[in-house]
Design brief:
By secondary structure, the chain is α/β, with parallel strands linked by helices. The chain has one domain: Diaminopimelate Epimerase, Chain A, domain 1. The chain is built from 8 helices and 5 strands. The chain has a 5-stranded mixed sheet. Helix 3 links the parallel strand 2 and strand 3. Helix 2 runs parallel beside helix 5 and helix 4 runs antiparallel to helix 5. The longest helix is centred in the middle third of the chain and has 20 residues.
Length: 253
């Protein structure tokens, strides 16, 4: 019965796509430069590694982008469910940022514009960062009038969130960054290819430091079952945090 239950749970169809192999950046709208994706991934990995041994450690900062045809389509996404499905943050120390983009036509060319931002906090993270603080960071970076470059705005938001996490939560003296350095990095590293994001594989999940022995076992049992009986399943990656729905919404006016 245990094996059968494990198989059924593993075979359950997820409501949302799995996170990409980068985990910390899931650009399903395919709108960010590769240099930006890589920077977000590296900062996410460094944050997790630097905080693993801290009290309330293992913080994970994850960004996802999705394209919607109409604003009403955003209602089909639930940030709390997505946070839980992707199992973000050890001990509920996670932040999920979702950026929604809508296509529009200008001079017979299709573009994507940012129409809404949603942020979800893990249970334990809620005691450190408030929705008001998140709102200020988003307004001063992503929705600021100082730049109309999306990649710069997204990375500015990433850095400000990292600064709040390192300084306010873990007591670092400072978290310094220079946006002009990142801007030059974008210039020096033009994209050579722009492949669609690919959800991470089962092997990456099993080898990742975020999967527990229980998760590894729950994956192995269905594999053995499926080997003899056939079928398919989906697993994800992350620290295993949960969330109660705290966060913010920002819609482009």
């Amino acid at each position: 019965m245990f094996t059968l239950l494990t198989v059924l749970l593993a075979c359950k169809k997820d409501e949302y796509p799995r996170p990409t192999s980068a985990f910390y950046i899931n650009d399903y709208a395919n709108i960010l430069y590769e240099a930006t994706r890589d920077s977000i991934r590296r900062e996410g990995e460094r944050l997790y590694e630097n905080t693993q041994d801290e009290i309330d450690g293992g913080t994970q900062l994850v960004i996802a982008t999705f394209e919607v045809e109409e604003l009403d389509d955003i209602a089909s996404y639930n940030k709390t469910d997505l946070y839980r499905q992707w199992r973000i943050g050890d001990d509920d120390m996670g932040i999920l940022i979702i950026l929604f983009f809508k296509p529009y036509i200008e001079n017979e060319i299709e573009y994507l514009e940012l129409v809404e931002t949603q942020i979800e906090l893990g249970y334990r993270m809620e005691q450190y960062i408030s929705p008001t603080q998140l709102g200020v960071i988003v307004d001063n970076t992503l929705y600021s009038d100082t730049t109309d470059d999306l990649d710069l705005a997204v990375m500015h938001m990433e850095y400000e969130l990292l600064s709040a996490i390192y300084v306010d939560i873990y007591g670092y003296e400072s978290f310094d960054y220079d946006m002009s350095v990142f801007e030059q990095y974008l210039i020096d590293n033009p994209d050579t290819s722009y492949d669609d994001p690919i959800p991470m594989s089962l092997i990456i999940f099993l080898l990742s430091p975020f999967s527990t022995w229980g998760e590894k076992l729950s994956a192995i049992l269905p594999i053995l079952f499926i080997f003899f009986a056939g079928g398919g399943f989906i697993l994800n990656k992350g620290g295993g945090g949960s969330s109660g729905g705290a966060g913010i919404f920002r819609r482009r006016r």
